[in-house]
Fold these 2 entries.
Entry 1:
Amino acid sequence: MSGLELREVVKHFASGEETVRAVDGITLTVAPGEVVALYGPSGSGKTTLLLLAAGLLTPGAGSVRFDGRDLAQLSQQEAAEYQRRDVGFISQSFDLLPGVPALDNAAVKLLADRVPLAAARREATPWLERVGLGRRLHHLPAHLSGGERQRVAIARALANAPRLVLADEPTGNLDTERGAEVLALLLRVSRERGATVVLVTHDPLAAEVADRVLTLRDGRIADAPQQPGKTGTVAIARRC
Ligand SMILES: Nc1ncnc2c1ncn2[C@@H]1O[C@H](COP(=O)(O)OP(=O)(O)OP(=O)(O)O)[C@@H](O)[C@H]1O
Ligand SMILES: [Mg+2]
């Protein structure tokens, strides 16, 4: 089956005498072209779930598959390729390279995939423009605002056309207007390219973009999938 498929996934962490049940038996399928929004209180396991989907953490039990491939079965090289080519991870901490201009930060995954510098910059530029940073291409991260840094991280994650987009609070540092633009961009990436999108968020607007909304509590999905009101989707889609 294509898309993302988690089956009975468990990830516990040992913390002193205690065990933290960060992810505690999650079964979830997200199809290509689908956007799932994941809500939940702090510590409920949202980031851990994204890291498992990215293959950056290995489950203690259960399986994580993308396009039918069990991530646990990938060789080191295949796992690295999966993370570089298939996954666009927008992390909570941005992880930009300091001392490197916005444009080259956005191009970094293309460069890692051996795209020549000029071509990588050419491909990354429109993504920075789409997140409203067309006039910040040559700024260093230290000279960008928090929201601008977040948008560079979003451009970087999307620039090499990933088939799986894992976005951890992508609108967390943005005002409503910019946040809506980013959500519209993620929706567009899903609809136009058929990307599978999982969006961790506290943003109420995300529920209007998502095909499905799920809530995590104590490492489990707390409620049955529900259809959010779609009234805002058209308005958001128009911002693309
Ligand atoms: N490497 C680790 N070692 C030990 N405990 C961990 C580790 N990573 C996460 N945890 C714990 O697992 C739980 C889930 O963490 P996670 O980061 O997934 O939460 P979250 O839902 O993303 O929270 P937030 O909304 O604050 O970002 C937390 O209690 C956290 O302390
Ligand atoms: Mg988190």
Entry 2:
Amino acid sequence: MDKHRLKELASNPNHIVGISRYCDRWCERCPFTSRCLLYAMEKDDLLTNDTEAKDMQNEKFWKSISDNFKLAREMLKEDAKKFDIDIDNLPDDPELNKMMEERHEFAHNHPLSKKANHYLMTVHKWLKESKDLFEMKADEIQHKMLIDLKSEDPRKDVALIEDSVDIISWYFMQINVKLVRAFSSKYMDEAEGWDDEGEPKDSDGSAKVSLIGIDRSIAAWSILLNQFPEQENTILDMLVQLEVLRKGIEKEFPDARSFVRPGFDDGSR
Ligand code: SF4
């Protein structure tokens, strides 16, 4: 995509400003694709039409991401030039560098970020090791279909399991990423002494996205608990981890739940 095309896409008045800042990036399930600039850009870049480009492992996908970053940088450079700022030769600012390092430390080493990272690692391991579990369940369901148990609909179980695993797989990393961003923004708010009561804060918006991922994952794990009673201990451990995170985030970011995300929470359609 070139900058003229980007400007053309960006000038669409139907797009909701900032909608993709606090979404979960699950475009396949998003009701606002027609109102999202990011989605339009990705579609334009064939990221959503070209299966090759859609593949995260594929060189073409990363090239497209890299091209978009280069384009954004080029446009930023042009804008900065208007104010006599050369972004390629900005003076080194040791104080700013120190602040950035401290922010990184604070966000990544906060006990809640570490807990979210622990959850990420636990789920990653579980998903890797659960291939046999899913195969056994598939055999069991197939068996039920063969003997035609009229009182049950095994297809419903398949759909429920698939959907729950999709939800858990979608959010297990995002919970951590959004929480780290929330702490990173919180650090900046405090470093800059921002005490503007009532102003929406990026830290709350990011924490809200993390909380949404937690809520949906709790619901998904609860369904799996019914489907895989033999996994009770493991699944209960996941649920406890999520509950601890949920309570901790709500305490750290008391205004997160009431943060109004553009599009999703402001009554847009
Ligand atoms: S707002 Fe919706 S369409 Fe846009 S990036 Fe987020 S999930 Fe995708």
